[in-house]
Amino acid sequence: MFRSTFLLLLAVTASLFAQTPADFAQHLPNEYRMVPNVTYLTMGGVDLKLDVYQKRNVNTPQPTLFFMHGGFWVAGNKESQILALLPWMEMGWNVVNVEYRLGAVAPAPAALEDVMCAFKFIAAPAQTMAYNIDPTKIVVMGESAGGHLSLSLGMIPESAGLALQCENGQPMPKPAAVINWYGIYDVPDVIDGPHKQPAAQRWFGSKPDRMEIAKRVSPMTYVRAGLPPILTIHGDADMTVPYPQAVKLNEDLERLKVPHQLITIPKGGHGNFTPEQRTMIYRTIREFLTKNNVLR
Q1: Strand ordering across the sheet containing 230-235
Q2: What's the pLDDT at 205?
Q3: C-alpha of 295 from chain center
Q4: 3-state DSSP call for residue 92?
Q5: Which 3 state secondary structure label does DSSP give 260?
Q6: 15 CB neighbour count, 10 Å cutoff
Q7: Taken in order 166, 78, 126, 227, is the CA torsion positive or negative?
Q8: What pLDDT score does 16 carry?
Q9: Which is nearest to 222 in space by CA: 112, 64, 76?
Q10: Which domains does the chain have, with CATH numbers?
Q11: pTM for the full model?
């Protein structure tokens, strides 16, 4: 009797979990509203925009993902990354999807300056009230160059002078956590070091002071105690952003006792992880955020 009841309970539980993704997909329009192309800054006649995916039917501040696309700062766009946002909406989070000026429009450090302004914009009282954002629970995340930008938002202080162009006087907020997907920790390494990449070099062009700028926008320059929790995902066979950068980041954070974790994907390249690996990654993200009091 007990055994049959237990097996029935397992079957019902499995059925409920199996239906969850379908239920989420079917009810997504009821659960979220999208506010597209909100202008957060105008620079050189260019309106810089972000999209907000806001949870419906709530009146309390919500945990929010602040996402930046990759492309070595010279390619990509926010629209191409919409599918990467879905796991966070399934978790019930608000999501902010950010665009920034690419290298062909404005060279380094423009992309970083832009996302700093976007972060200050979305964490300001007017926006947190309008979109029900909890400013104490904004997690920054990005892939590749977006990973670099995420690390930068978590590590580069306002005193570095990279947010001077922002239109509001808000102080630079501190992310609740950083989720870094194979991002660049040591910028000079991919500009003119052993692992230099032509796409990355295009962000700097032929500026005579490009290595000085590279150090200025490199998260490694600012590593110190007191940083927000940082979770890094990196394939150990990545030929674009070298895996040793993730190892170095992890070692530095360990030495300084900053909450951190490195998820190494065996034989993993520059993204394109398997479904099983992505399931494991998101399970670990939830555990990491729970451990660091961002999720409950």
Answers
A1: 32-43, 46-55, 94-98, 62-68, 133-143, 177-181, 230-235, 260-265
A2: 87
A3: 16
A4: coil
A5: strand
A6: 9
A7: negative
A8: 37
A9: 112
A10: 24-291 (3.40.50.1820)
A11: 0.92
Location of structure tokens 């950083």: 178
Q: Are strands 46-55 and 94-98 parallel, antiparallel or unpaired?
A: antiparallel
Residues of the chain with pLDDT under 70: 1-22
Name the nearest CA neighbour of 162 among 204, 228, 115. 115
Distance in angstroms (rounded) separating the CA atoms of residues 265 and 7: 35
pLDDT at 241: 96
What's the pLDDT score for residue 44?
A: 81
Place of tokens 């490009």: 210
Buried b (16+ CB within 10 A) or exposed e, 117-134: bbbbbbbbeebbeebbbb
- Dist. CA 279–CA 21, nearest whole Å: 13
Q: Which amino acid is at 232?
A: T
Cα 56 to Cα 59, 67, 82: the distances in Å are 9, 20, 18
Of 133, 135, 132, nearest in space to 174 by CA: 135
Structure confidence at residue 20 (pLDDT):
63
DSSP 154-194: HHS-GGGSTTTT-SS-PPPPPPSEEEEES--S-HHHHHHST
Per-residue model confidence (pLDDT) at position 14: 40
Mind giving me the DSSP string for 186-208?
-HHHHHHSTT--HHHHHHHTT-T
Q: Tokens 């947190």 appear where? A: 128
Query: With the CA atoms of 112, 114, 120 and 125 taken in that order, what torsion angle do they form, in degrees rounded to the nearest 10?
Result: -160
How many DSSP H helices and E strands does the chain contain?
A: 10, 8
